[in-house]
Amino acid sequence: MNPSSTKGFYRSLRPLATPSSLLEAGGWPGLFPREGPLELEIGFGNGEYLARSAESSPGSNFVGLEVSWNSLKRALRRLALPPRTNVRVLHLPARPALSFFFTPKSVSIARCLFPIPWPNERHAGKRIFSRPFWDLMACRLVDGGLFQMVTDQRDLALWALAEAGGSAMEFGMRESRELLDTKYERKWLSGGQDVFFHLEGRKTRHQDINEPGLVDMQPHYSSSLDPRDYRPKNRSQDPTVVFGEFLYDQSRGKGLLAAKVVEDQFVQEFYIRVSKLPEGGFKLAPTGRVCPTMGVEIALELASLAPETRGGRRRRQASDDSGTSEPAGGPGTSETPGPREEGGGA
User: Fold this and answer.
1) pLDDT tens for each residue of 189-211
2) Do 231 and 182 lie in a common domain?
3) How many domains does the chain have?
């Protein structure tokens, strides 16, 4: 294999951050070898602009967010040649990433280059530059911090400006032939477009917001769980909780319950360990590297609830009438989350 080639294999996964690595490091500062201003790129595409920025500004630390795994793989190969220690990438959409993994006043500059415009009205919900996004960005930016966006779509630029009206971000827009040398800029240039719309917003005041954040997660306990007929109820509203297969070893008194939690586009799939206690009852706790969010806490609560409190009234009534007892529970409804939003493309 040609050592100079960047196709077909990973050079290094070192730049890849995960929710668990962020928790272990205590946040972004713990993932970089030295302190510096933190710059964020939303939707970095193939990573060429992110890589150039990290190389040209070694005194700053850079984080890239991307929802496309194929784009992230290409960026990982690019970031390895030459290796850069001041850049990390995270495979998450912008809003849950900002909500869960960035603290207030932590980002000096955020940018999004050539985001997907989602021009059709039926796709309006996929556009990320709505008023809640600007409120969240005004919380995460440092005082006086900047947000920069470049797009080939005037309508998207005007919509983003309108959504930012009245927020803690003060924006201006200009048409420019300034070149950033990114994949989609080259694509539009080759198609004959040579004017792009540049938005730059500055944080003018701090915006406090009530975000869910992370929780101090503790084990849950159940005194009435019956492993012979254990089917916790799913939850369809946000955060969504869907339970899967439950496997139980009667001889060891231990089991695993598959769970999937979706909250604000942040998806976690994990197992809940169900352990029988010597004094009776069961202890429930997530296994592996689970990010302690409110959605996971809700999943533990649902999994630990006594069957008779989870909608088994008709079955309980039938057992009362007959003078016998029967485990209640029943399967819940399963809801599959929709596709995740995409923020940028570079």
Assistant:
1) 787 777 889 999 999 999 998 87
2) no
3) 2
